[in-house]
């Protein structure tokens, strides 16, 4: 006779009454406890059954009579233990269900999963996990670095030792404060943001609490960063190990039964959208086709000479294109003329053209090799990655070469300017050491002869450059207005002597005079 199990229906409870009485005599304590739990479940679900009231009452009486008979055979301690275990199980299940509501954006991620599948929702799950790790690292830095510095600054008084020591990094200057509210300053994270706890330059060398406790912020900053780095590595590796344990396709068994694994584990049962289900169906079909093609390739394992030559030719074309991209970037980076728009943006146009056209050409070249679709995709991605690395490395090298050329030109220009300045300074030294009359004689002896000057028709007064035009009552000195020429004809006059002894002449006397040279300064 078959023992009573939890899979029996409520409708057969009345018919099996005599059988249960005989079964309970030979049942163990654990089986009796299981039967008691089953009867209690029947009593709890009896109200939901679509029966008439007479049948419900009869079933309830039978279940209660069974409970009384079976509970009498079990001690109270075991009953209480079983009941406590059941309550604990219910509480843990309720708590697990309640934790789902505490997970951030869980409902939205489940909605995305029902529309687009678990592959798309896993990306948002990863973003949520990354946010949690970053928040944890922020809390660690906040507790051990930011809050101690803030507490130390709150105890700081004006003109104290700490105030004087940290004034240059914590107090905003007046010129910066005037521009702190401007949009450009806020956009560059300057002003109030620069002199705040957000930036590392705000922190001092050490922080004191009272007179006995000493808290070193640099040591805390170093240890906190080390702990954050170790925590991030530990969390990432732990999550990767957990995913590897739960993944059924990560073991070597997937290579034994390829089509069975793809058939029974390829469908995503979380999808609730018809369009997404159709896309997943087509994706599974493509996976099966790739698996069949891969199996066929593995069975043949034959290489013809033509295929080998085509693959060598394809790789040669790829290397040629990489070399051409390097030459093109180096060539356009050496352009010095900027008279047209194309020449001004030659480097950016060339790099954009290469990154746009060459990957498509790589894909066309890959069709000559006739690899498996998955292998061809990996080779395509590797070639594109090499193209990007080579292009940007070449771009950086070309910019460094251009910067070096500009630096050399600047040095040559500075050297020429220094030579010109030194020559001018040497000429000034000669002028200072020589008298004005010697300078006039040496400068104009080859060009001006005093004997060839024609006599003026009207009264004319010749004044030497040593003295300048000196009035009888108001003495003045003649000084050159242009400092770059030794014999300039444009001059200005400066008054000589104290102004209180000057006398106003009774009448203005106009005099004509000639000047051989101009006095550059008054010695």
TrEMBL record:
Protein species of origin: Angiostrongylus costaricensis (Nematode worm)
Protein name: TMC domain-containing protein
Biased composition (Acidic residues): 13-23
Residue ranges of the TM segments: 126-147, 219-237, 308-330, 342-362, 382-401
One function term, GO molecular function aspect: mechanosensitive monoatomic ion channel activity
The organism's place on the tree of life at top rank: Eukaryota
Region (Disordered): 1-26
Alphabetic keyword roster: Coiled coil, Membrane, Transmembrane, Transmembrane helix
Entry keyword annotation includes Repeat: no
Residue ranges the record marks as coiled coil: 53-80
A GO cellular-component term linked to this record: plasma membrane
Tagged with keyword Coiled coil: yes
PANTHER family noted in UniProt: TRANSMEMBRANE CHANNEL-LIKE PROTEIN 2, TRANSMEMBRANE CHANNEL-RELATED
């Amino acid at each position: 006779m078959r023992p009573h199990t939890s899979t029996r229906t409520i409708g057969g409870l009345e018919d099996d009454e005599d059988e249960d009485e005989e079964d309970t005599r030979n049942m163990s304590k654990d089986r009796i406890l299981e039967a008691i739990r089953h009867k209690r479940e029947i009593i709890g679900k009896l109200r939901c059954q679509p029966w008439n009231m007479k049948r419900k009452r009869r079933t309830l009486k039978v279940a209660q009579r069974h409970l009384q008979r079976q509970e009498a055979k079990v001690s109270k301690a075991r009953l209480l233990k079983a009941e406590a275990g059941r309550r604990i199980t219910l509480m843990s299940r309720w708590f697990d269900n309640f934790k789902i509501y505490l997970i951030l954006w869980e409902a939205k991620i489940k909605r995305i999963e029902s529309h687009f599948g678990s592959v798309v929702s896993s990306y948002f799950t990863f973003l949520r996990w990354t946010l949690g790790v970053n928040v944890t690292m922020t809390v660690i830095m906040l507790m051990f670095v930011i809050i101690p510095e803030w507490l130390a600054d709150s105890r700081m008084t004006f003109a104290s030792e700490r105030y004087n020591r940290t004034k240059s990094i914590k107090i905003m200057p007046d010129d910066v404060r005037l521009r702190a509210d401007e949009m450009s300053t806020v956009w560059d994270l300057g002003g109030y943001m620069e002199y705040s706890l957000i930036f590392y330059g705000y922190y001092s060398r050490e922080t004191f609490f009272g007179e006995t406790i000493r808290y070193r912020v640099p040591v805390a900053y170093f240890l906190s960063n080390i702990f954050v780095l170790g925590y991030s590595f530990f969390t990432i590796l732990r999550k990767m190990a957990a995913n590897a344990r739960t993944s059924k396709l990560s073991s070597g068994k997937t290579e034994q039964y390829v089509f069975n694994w793809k058939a029974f584990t390829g469908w995503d049962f979380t999808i609730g959208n018809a369009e997404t289900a159709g896309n997943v169906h087509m994706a599974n079909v493509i996976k099966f086709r790739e698996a069949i093609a891969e199996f066929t390739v593995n069975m043949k394992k034959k290489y013809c000479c033509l295929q080998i030559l085509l693959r060598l030719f394809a790789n040669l074309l790829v290397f040629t294109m990489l070399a051409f991209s390097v030459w093109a970037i180096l060539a356009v980076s050496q352009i010095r003329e900027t008279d047209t728009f194309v020449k001004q943006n030659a480097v950016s146009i060339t790099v954009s053209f290469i990154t746009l056209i060459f990957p498509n050409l790589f894909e066309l070249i890959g069709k000559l090799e006739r690899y498996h679709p998955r292998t061809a995709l990996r080779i395509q991605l590797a070639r594109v990655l090499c193209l990007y690395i080579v292009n940007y490395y070449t771009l950086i090298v070309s910019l460094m070469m251009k910067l070096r050329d500009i630096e050399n030109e600047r040095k040559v220009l500075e050297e020429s300017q220094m030579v010109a300045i030194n020559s001018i300074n040497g000429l000034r030294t000669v002028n200072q050491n020589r008298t004005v009359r010697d300078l006039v004689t040496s400068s104009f002896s080859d060009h001006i002869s005093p004997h060839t000057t024609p006599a003026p028709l009207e009264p004319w007064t010749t004044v030497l450059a040593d003295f300048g035009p000196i009035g009888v009552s108001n003495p003045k000195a003649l000084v050159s207005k242009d400092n770059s020429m030794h014999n300039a004809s444009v001059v200005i006059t400066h008054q000589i002597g104290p102004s209180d002894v000057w006398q106003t002449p009774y009448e203005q006397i106009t005099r004509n005079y000639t000047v051989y040279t101009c006095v550059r300064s008054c010695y």
